[in-house]
Specification:
The protein has 128 residues and is α+β, with helices and mostly antiparallel strands. The chain has a domain of 76 residues: Immunoglobulin-like (Sandwich), CATH 2.60.40. The chain contains 1 helix and 7 strands. The strands form 2 sheets. A 4-stranded antiparallel sheet has the order 1-2-7-6, with no helix packed on it. Pfam families: HSP20.
């Protein structure tokens, strides 16, 4: 396993933070795949939404907290859960939380995450 110190200061530029997050995600993914053999989730998309399926055996729906912030969806189990779960998935576009839904059946959490389409703020300018 590879460990690297992480120094976070206010003087870091956003580009360095993005690089740091990418580096951390890469090594977490490598370590997780090596330990378990699979990630336990799948992601598919169509033109209007993403469908994220996560294997969560032994966790009830009242033991899960799901939060959406911008383009990130976070899944976390409560203290009462027998199995501890904490995961975050970052998608390329923002998520429309009002049009999204979640179901938990047979230990599989399925999130239907609606894409929030970017709105154009173009204002026509008259030529004089």
């Amino acid at each position: 396993m590879f460990f690297a110190p992480v120094i976070r200061q206010a003087s870091y530029s956003p580009a360095l933070r993005t690089l740091d997050r990418s580096f951390e995600r890469f090594f977490n993914d490598v370590a997780y795949v090596r330990q378990s053999g699979t990630k336990g989730h799948s992601l598919s998309q169509d033109e209007n939404s993403w469908t994220l399926s996560v294997d969560l055996p032994g966790v009830a729906k009242d033991q899960l907290n799901i939060g959406i912030e911008g383009a990130v969806v976070r899944i976390e189990s409560t203290e009462a859960a027998a199995r501890k779960v904490k995961a975050a998935y970052e998608l390329p576009l923002e998520i429309d939380a009002a049009a999204s839904s979640a179901t938990l059946e047979n230990g599989v959490l399925t999130l239907k995450l609606a894409k929030k389409l970017p709105q154009s703020n173009v204002t026509p300018l008259a030529i004089q």
